[in-house]
Amino acid sequence: MWPKNFKFTEDHEWVKVDGDEAQIGLSNHAQDALGDIVFVELPEVGDEVVQGEPFGVVESVKAVSDCYAPLSGTVVKINEALIDNPGLINESPHENGWMIVIEPSDLGELNDLMDTAEYEEYEKTVEH
């Protein structure tokens, strides 16, 4: 079970808001569906991300997939560890495998996302 402060998109990204920052990554469902992740492309610190728009790319042994921003805001940190070890997303998608941290521009956008219970139900309806 994930912390209650996680929110999820239908594209299987998660966001965890802590104060004035929001950490973003891929859900366990996403990393499982993708298989072994071998490359990650992340935005630069200072870049703007827009809710629902791509902010990065993950490449796995199965596919190349865009990652979509669950919230709009400014990138304040990227997970440098993923550059040398993209498999962290597979090993620890909700902890060490986070991708970026943003300073959200509109926390009202959280209302567009699913909470943990809603996401767990949603996961049951989607194919791997």
Separation, N- and C-terminal Cα atoms: 20 Å
Q: How much helicity do the residues have? A: 10-25%
* Extended strand count: 10
- Rg for CA atoms: 13 Å
Instruction: Supply the number of structural domains.
Output: 1
CATH architecture: Beta Barrel
Proportion in β-strands = 35-45%
User: Outline, from the CA principal axes?
Assistant: globular
CATH top-level class: Mainly Beta
- What series of H and E elements makes up the topology? EEEHEEEEEHHEEH
- Spatial order of strands in the largest sheet: 5-8-9-3-2-1-10
Low-confidence spans: none
CATH fold field value: OB fold (Dihydrolipoamide Acetyltransferase, E2P)
- Helix vs. strand class: alpha+beta
> Kindly state the mean pLDDT as a whole number?
94
* Biggest β-sheet description: 7 strands, antiparallel
CATH homologous superfamily (4th level) name: RNA polymerase II/Efflux pump adaptor protein, barrel-sandwich hybrid domain
Count the DSSP helices.
4
Can you describe this structure?
The protein has helices at residues 28-34, 81-84, 88-91, 116-123, and strands spanning 6-8, 13-18, 21-26, 37-41, 48-49, 54-60, 64-68, 73-78, 100-104, 114-115. It is of the alpha+beta class. The mean pLDDT is 94. It has a seven-stranded antiparallel sheet with strand order 5-8-9-3-2-1-10. The chain starts with 5 loop residues before the first strand and ends in a 5-residue tail after the last helix. It is globular and about 35 Å long. It has one domain (6-123): OB fold (Dihydrolipoamide Acetyltransferase, E2P). The chain is built from four helices and ten strands, in the order E-E-E-H-E-E-E-E-E-H-H-E-E-H. Strand 2 and strand 3 form a beta hairpin.
